[in-house]
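Please think about what follows:
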Amino acid sequence: MSNLIKLGIFILIMYILQYFLTFLQMNSFKKYFNMFLDEGKVAIGIQKGAISSGAIVMFCVDEIGYIKRYAYIQGVSVLARFKEKKEFINVNIRDLDEEMLKGLRLHKNLVKAILNAKSNYIKVQNGEEIELEKSPFQKAVGIFKK
């Protein structure tokens, strides 16, 4: 068997593994999203990390904004899974700010994701739309369209 065929088989196996692990990660997201949605409103915040770890935060809030449940995912690979924490239970999502979060010694991208979730929640409550940031691929393609 030639080295080129071996390389092709290796790349195919890595692609299938990547697909499977991404599938598991998305199932973790769907599980928490559906659980939280059954209990109240859901506020989601995202902070992408190009080289460092990114973070996604999900809050389940009641009708007036008090946090009932909180989960997050943080990492650079598809091996990361959502973790549910208790830090913000019974805190109003509008009260989350950098000052409060500094005391908890959270990763900077997790703090940004939490603040993004707060911002998204407030925008939706005010009837505003949330604009999604373009992916690196969309940004690269946009350069060539000019």
The longest strand covers residues 67-75. The chain has a mean pLDDT of 86.
